[in-house]
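Input chain follows. Return structure tokens only.
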Amino acid sequence: MANQKKEDFSVKETKPSIRAKQPLNGPTTSFDLVEEMLYLYVKIEKARLPVLDHSLLQVELKIGNYRGAATAEVKNPQGEFLWYRVFAFTKSRLQDTRVQVLVKDGVNVVGECSFGVSDALRRVPPDPPLSPQWYELVAQKGNAKGELMMAFWTGTQADEVYNSASHSDAAVDLSHEGLLSIRPSVYYTPRLWYLRVNVIGVQDLVLNDINNREQPAQIYVKARVPLCELSTRACSTKTADPKWNEDLMFVVAEPFGETLDVGVFELKKDASLPSEEQKKYGKYEVLLGSCRIPLKNVGKRNDRSPAASLWYDLKVIEGEGMNARFASKINMRISLDGGYHVFDEPTEFSSDLRPSAKILWKPAVGMFELGIMSASGLSPIMPKTSVDAFCVAKYGPKWVRTRTVVDNCSPKWNEQYMWEVYDHCTVITIAVFQNKYLLNWERNLDREIGKVRIRLSNLEFDKVYTNSHPLVSLEPYGVMKRGELQLSYRFCSTSKLNVYHSYTQALWPKLHYVLPLSVAQIHRLRPQAVKLTESRLQKAESPLSPEVVQYVLDDNKHKFSLRRAKANFLRCMKLLERFSLYRQWFDRLRKWTNPLHNAVFIISLIEVTWFPWMALASMFFMLSGIGAWGYWKRPKQLPHIDTELSQVYSVHPDEIAEEFDSFPTSATGNILTIRYHRLQGIILNVQTTLGDIASTGERVQSLLSWRDKKATLLALIFFFFAGMVFYIYPFSVRSLVFWTILYMIRHPMLRIDLPSYFHNFIRRMPSKIDSML
């Protein structure tokens, strides 16, 4: 890897011609973060052809080599063929000055009309839509052949018909799904909830000869919702009333049209098999009873109060019919927990921190506007020599997809979107893909090209950022840049006071702290949330493919990577270097390397010795001074992929290839496989722990780094006023230590269940995880 060419992965500032950075002149639109693109819109509504007696009629538009077509399958009672289609042509790519509109009966042209491109009037919203008019259709011999109702005008991407128009810049033959996939779309994922099923016990199970068995019966409960099935531990019992008191957690989505299926099973041995095979394979389950509970009937709870304990009838299906009879009852607590935030993204890159229950939501603190302008240098996917690219941006429950620019390695989208921001310490993800409908492969997938993440807390208020972000991809043979994505964005706050106040608030909803979920539970529940999101987005009229959802919501933190383990270890070592620097500094003082430093140190030592009450004030003043001095050296660009930090050039090539190894490993030999899996488990824990330690230390270190300018400003204000307080009201160190310890061991009745303000503040500080590949 040492010989691999090192590319530049930094974020570069661009200077596009956008209205947000120019004086206002002329008509204005809401699209001020993207460059204006002119389109020729042609709206075809219907046609009157009284002498034609056919069921199919096609309208076709031609401008040079570009074309658009639509077919009307039926005729209305008034004898009119209906289309109601809008076609869009990029004016900068037009190859002719006139537009031909042909009405065809199969392959025969039954009527046509034309108009000049210069005749299309300019329309700028909020002007009302242009009213369609009747135009005469002329046959090839020159006589009249009916009428066509249409309208044409020149507009921009701010036009309301932009999203529904057929962009016909390239002549491509696509299916109905393919045509929908090249249009821009907006998706909203439903609110996700945690479904908690607390299985308490079963009463009066029907078990044959339960008291005469040598071994106790193995009874367990299995619960199932769409896309997921979980079971309790097996309860060994010789009675008909087994107990569990075990929680099963699921992820469900509104509007709760599904049902929860609960079944009680007994695990039996197959007596027809030999004893040795019984231990391995000779077990099967027998259904003892089941019940179905509609999720819409399940109660919701927003706090830690337990749900009501209810008894449900278990029914048994006899034979092939549905003759259900009463068998027994099962005792469960079932609730929809709305006080949690359902994790469907990596916790480090969450775009939404709100709980499921809408009643617990806080007001929005601002708006985030994103302009997806263009891309450059995109790497084509073989065997094609160009790219059919589209972008997907995800923030909170809102997903957006731009239109697909066909056959272009430097596509221009110039589309603008907006999101409400409820917590600015969140991240938006923008990814670029190759459209699978244009690859013409047997097994097509939307191939990922790269993605960009932007942390909103790194942005200044109301400032317009225009940057070119690299699209970085890690391949088995190393890291490569597959192009650059040009974006413009800004964060506008409705209340700056609420933004600063949020630094003292808990990061997650209150229920995560008073009734926490274990790390293992969150890891098991997150794949459920991702699958549920995939299934819902696939049901849209223009479906978003599962590979797109998986790539946007991808979390590689919990995948084995020796490279990431080394990188996290070096992050920790870099933090520990601070102590070595302090020791070197003290050694220089002893050696009088710099007399000025020694003089300052001696004066400070005398001050602390003779005026001990000045120690804390001096410390806070010093921190304020260091932070203020660091303002001039503050980072000038947003975080980007750091190849040195990610250790992509300093590791052996086989270590990067190991990240793409299959699971289980493709290595040969049983012993090698066992050792390999054991090593993966150990290194994975070390890797995650080191990453968490490094992130915590870097958050503390970033208090005065001006990476998050708003947080650093709050820290400086606190340090300064703390210095003033300790200066005016001096406290002895002994009394301060005493009251601090007394405060830490105070009675639990005097405590709150939420973390301290200091913990909340540090938890919101950025770390170098944003620059990790």
